[in-house]
Task: structure prediction
Amino acid sequence: MSSEIQRQDQNSIQTRNQNAAKPQHIQNQARGLLNNLVSSVQTLVDDITALEVNTMVVERINASKFNAWEAYQEIYSIHDPDYFNAKGIPNEGLEAEELRKRYRSLFDQLEREYFYLLLEEGSGFYNPQDDRVKRYRQRLEYAKKHQPDVVEADQENIKLAKPILPAPTPVLDNKDENNQDDWIEAFKEIQRLLENDKFVRTLRKMYELKAALNSSNVASTNTDIIYAQTVMQLDGDIITRYHKDLFNLSEDAKNLIINTHNQGVISGEKQWRGTFSFLISLVQNIANLSR
Result:
């Protein structure tokens, strides 16, 4: 009889312990979800500090979804010496040279974004002993000593640190047994980059600009023109730009583009304000839950 009572008591104790553990487990899960939500909200806030509305007239709309890895490969490939010839991009005349410069600028801007991460403490990529950072500083000091009028803050100086961006594909070299290991490290670095919200925002922008340069015919010097652009900042500044070619169009075409752009700005502003209201409400609810 006594042994039966002991078994019942033990079962009762185990049940109480399990019941006590369940709320703690649920609490831990809720806290984890809350932390993820806060991180997501922070990303959204970083993304929507400014509203940008662009209006273009294109022959074809590419409906493919943005893929960060694919976009990285495409932007990086511009750095390949054979890129322009392989793609059939024109190479004769001032317009062709200007077009190639615009392509190269996409790679340069993405490269700068990565280099800023290398220089920024707390970015997760900062390492003052990184060979690229040391090379950049050494070459910059040399340039300042031997070249007149070198501005240290000039973005072009980042090229002194090349190569910077990790290659998305291995460079085949049978003589280098460590080549595969180097590429694996580069692959891991790219994966880390594609998890960085700031870098991915720049990558997305460069990818969109590349699509405009490709237009409907990559072998043509004609590109999709952004006829109108409006940027609205949180502090109330509103900047609207119009491409000069807009005013060479017929009156009907010009008015249609301007009216369409204005409607896009109004719709974008409403969505922007709605998103902010939602985020403010969400932050307030998170704050109440965390008390």
Q: What stands out?
A: Residues 118 and 125 are 5 Å apart (CA to CA). The helical segments are 2-47, 68-77, 83-87, 94-119, 131-146, 179-193, 197-214, 251-289. The chain has a mean pLDDT of 76.
